[in-house]
Write a structure and sequence with these properties.
With about 180 residues, the chain is α/β, with parallel strands linked by helices. It has one domain (about 30-180): Glutaredoxin (3-Layer(aba) Sandwich), CATH 3.40.30. It has helices at about 1-5, 10-25, 75-90, 110-120, 130-135, 165-180, and strands spanning about 45, 55, 65-70, 95-100, 125-130, 145-150, 155-160. The strands form two sheets. Strands 5-4-3-6-7 form a five-stranded mixed beta sheet. A two-stranded antiparallel ribbon has the order 1-2. β4 (about 95-100), α4 and β5 (about 125-130) form a beta-alpha-beta unit. It is globular. About 30% of the residues are buried. Pfam families: Redoxin (PF08534).
Length: about 180
């Protein structure tokens, strides 16, 4: 029995190596969403600096994206140019979900400055000051982008900044396919 005790550290070490190997083999940008293949969570939020509201019901019958962003998000700045070109070139309907960009009584001052500096590619911007809509969508952090089909079903979730590669390899082909479906 004492001879087995000598092998315990080796077994433990090999177990850790196995877990590390398994963890490195998974893409950290692929964060599963429980909403893939299901109806998008409902929301009704105020539009940025407007008295009107926007909801996902306004997007029924369209293939669209929900892009969660904030002016304080460094990664959002990194994706903004790529996202803007993609939206313009492919004529994509996009709701920007301004996530927790609140801190003063002058809500929107920071995000409006950010949009003025970098441009506004969004069809409409929904204001999620308390973050509850983001929570309902399963947002882990910003930026995150969801693709929703004409029936309001979430078809994909992209975690992290949208890149040229993710547009080319994942988002554009999916959106083109969904547009063809009736």
């Amino acid at each position: 029995m004492s001879s087995y005790k000598h092998f315990l550290p080796l077994v433990f070490f090999l177990g850790l190596v196995g877990l590390l190997y398994w963890g490195l083999g998974n893409d950290p940008k692929v964060v599963p969403s429980p909403f893939i293949g299901k109806q998008a969570p409902a929301f009704e939020l105020p539009k940025l600096y407007k008295e009107e509201k926007v909801s996902n019901e306004d997007m029924k019958g369209k293939v669209w994206m929900l892009n969660v962003f904030a002016s304080w998000c460094v990664s959002c700045r990194a994706e903004h140019e790529v996202l803007s070109k993609f939206i313009a070139s492919d004529n994509i309907e996009v709701v920007g979900l301004n996530y927790k960009d609140y801190g003063t009584e002058e809500y929107g001052k920071e995000v409006l400055g950010w949009l003025q500096q970098f441009g506004n590619p969004y069809n409409v911007i929904a204001v999620d000051t308390d973050g509850y809509t983001g929570i309902n969508w399963g947002v882990y952090g910003v930026p995150e982008t969801f693709v929703i089909d004409k029936n309001g079903v979430v078809r994909d979730k992209h975690t992290g900044p949208v890149t040229e590669e993710s547009v080319r390899d994942r988002l554009r082909p999916l959106i083109q396919q969904l547009r063809k479906e009736s």
